[in-house]
Amino acid sequence: MDEKFDASMTPGLRLRACKGCIGILCANFDGSTRGHVTSDATGTATYQDNNTYLSREFGYSHDVDLVWALLVDMSLLCTFMLQHTVMARPVIKGLYNKLSLSIVERSVYNLTASLALQLLIQHWVALRDPVWRINTVEHNACWWMFAISHGYCWATIYLGSLTMDLSELLGIKQVYYYLNGWDDPLTLKSSELQRLISHQRHPSFVSFFFIFWVHPYMSVDRLIMAVIMTLYMVCAWKVDDIDFEYQERQFKRKEIELSHVH
Asked: Which segment of the chain is annotated as a signal peptide (predicted)?
């Protein structure tokens, strides 16, 4: 995005450009009216609709064959889910152990997950037809409501990852501990926490569900993604009553510890 916030931009255009930046971070809340700010050689800024921009710059076509588009998108989603599922199987982890490469197992998992996600983003075929659409361009309060709620969900996921030991989740701590001659950091965690991690590797089901479904512009391709990813989370995340009770005990314990601080 090539923006120039110079004096030629009106206050309204600047506000729209800022909203566009936040909208990109929070999944583009303006639907088919999404756009970006460009500047020509004279420095004059203009707001351009993304559909027009994609058609001119990248050969994007609205006449994409529906069946082919669905096959491509579903194949990309299946690739992403297969990577997450297959590489987490005990047989794969056992193979790492046999090859004495268990310390890089988590790092390789994250690398391949990132590649699968990049593949999905790069080759995803957008189907612009809306299932539902809420006009957020003319209603700033509505736009901010979606932006703040999505921002809160992403913050919850990030902070939840921090509390679940982000460096271990990324595979960095395993390598660091190995270089220092220490045991695998996962083995140093309690059996209850290990059980929870095996059932839910990262948070948060509710936040992901909200991000997928609570959106002002639900296009056909987004609906497909929301349905498939929700079903995958339901099947893959197996948190039960024992895990819930463990988290509840830890939460109460932390409350008591914090109350003594003051």
From this structure: none
Q: Which of these, 125, 202, 148, lies nearest to 26 by C-alpha position?
A: 148
Please report the pLDDT score of residue 23 as a whole number: 54
Give the whole-number percent of the chain exceeding pLDDT 70. Answer: 75
Residue length of the chain: 262
Q: CB–CB of 202/169 below 8 Å? A: yes
Question: Could you tell me what percentage of the chain is helix, strand and coil, using 3-state DSSP and rounding each to the nearest 5?
Answer: 65, 5, 25
How does DSSP classify residue 217? E
Cα gap 27→210, rounded to integer Å: 12
Residue for token pair 């050969």: 59
Full DSSP string of 49-106:
EHHHHHHHHH---TT--HHHHHHHHHHHHHHHHHHHHHTTSHHHHHHHHHTT-GGGHH
In angstroms, the CA 218 to CA 134 distance is: 9
Q: Which of 18, 17, 28, 1 is nearest to 147 (CA)?
A: 28
pLDDT attached to residue 254: 82
Q: Decide the pairing of beta strands 45-49 and 217-219.
A: unpaired
- Mean pLDDT across the stretch 69-83? 94
| Joined tokens for residue 212 | 């997928």
Query: What three-state secondary structure class fits 171?
Result: coil
